[in-house]
Amino acid sequence: MRASFVMSEIGVGLRRNLTMTFAVVVSVALSLALFGGSLLMSDQVNTMKGYWYDKVNVSIFLCNKSDAESDPNCAKGAVTEDQKKQIQADLDKMSVVEKVTYESQDEAYKHYKEQFGDSPLADSLTPDQMQESYRIKLKDPEKYQVVATAFDGRDGVQSVQDQKGILDNLFGLLNGMNWAARMVMALMLVVALMLIVNTVRVSAFSRRRETGIMRLVGASGFYIQAPFIAEAAVAGLIGGTVACGFLVIARYFIIDHGLDLSHKLNLINFIGWDAVLTKLPLILATSLLMPALAAFFALRKYLKV
Fold it and tell me: Which of 179, 173, 172, 169 lies closest to 37 in space, CA to CA?
């Protein structure tokens, strides 16, 4: 088969169905941009989990005088020195504990003023109203329940809180948003496939006389189908290239420049360029193969060869 013939037929087909070709390019670009974005979102969530789960602490909050009057967990009164020593000793014996940090009422009050100094409640609080606490770093953040079981309900302990639970809620929200993006992406892919099939059908119908002559002179089925398949593949590849451009531009302007989130939100460990660049070949391959396969199966049904 002459390559020049195939290329000329591709150009003719794209020009004849320019509007539908444009629609295919746009729909493929949007769907694959969402596809790549959802993959990058998954990478971002996993990166954040690895970064933050390594830093989460379990906090054991101790009863103070105010809690003794209002909290059922502190009905036996404020924590005593003996109780604090026993809690410290038990924590030191636990194999799951990596590090224990004690925070006094004065230190808790200082940290509160630093973080919430503008709050209307800040001026009304006094150090004796703050809670003493032990901040525990675990060797494995999944072992929180070991600490909770050992200390929850103990005399002098007001509550045992796991920061991992707060992060789980955040990551659950991010994962939900990611799945929503995937659903939109799937819908856009269906639309793109329908447009590709219709474009191929219109192209085949507009050239039915030419394909009929080719059948009469003994042209093979593949020789007749190749220009239509290549036409769909080229349109898809253009859309895939645009999708790759979207992802690169989004990463550049949202994280590195423009919004500059990497500096404004320096507590978040953002994914690097390597994560983006490794997704681009997959997007390009998908943009090439998906339209080609759709055109192939559409031709089997609508183009009798």
Answer: 179
pTM, whole model, 2 decimals? 0.61
**Is the predicted pLDDT of residue 300 greater than 60, yes or no?**
yes
DSSP 40-93: HHHHHHHHHHHHHHTT-EEEEEEP-HHHHHH-GGGTT-SPPHHHHHHHHHHHHH
| Rounded Cα distance, 45 and 30, in Å | 22
Which of 283, 111, 157, 305 minimizes the C-alpha distance to 219? 305
* pLDDT tens readout for residues 32-77: 888 888 888 878 777 776 666 666 678 888 888 877 777 888 888 8
DSSP secondary structure, 10-43, as one string: HHHHHHHTHHHHHHHHHHHHHHHHHHHHHHHHHH
Query: Rounded CA gap, 116 and 121, in Å?
Result: 9
Cα separation, 120 vs 272, whole angstroms: 40
H or E element at residue 170 = helix 163-206
Q: What is the DSSP code string of 174-221?
A: HHHHHHHHHHHHHHHHHHHHHHHHHHHHHHHHHTHHHHHHHHHTT--H
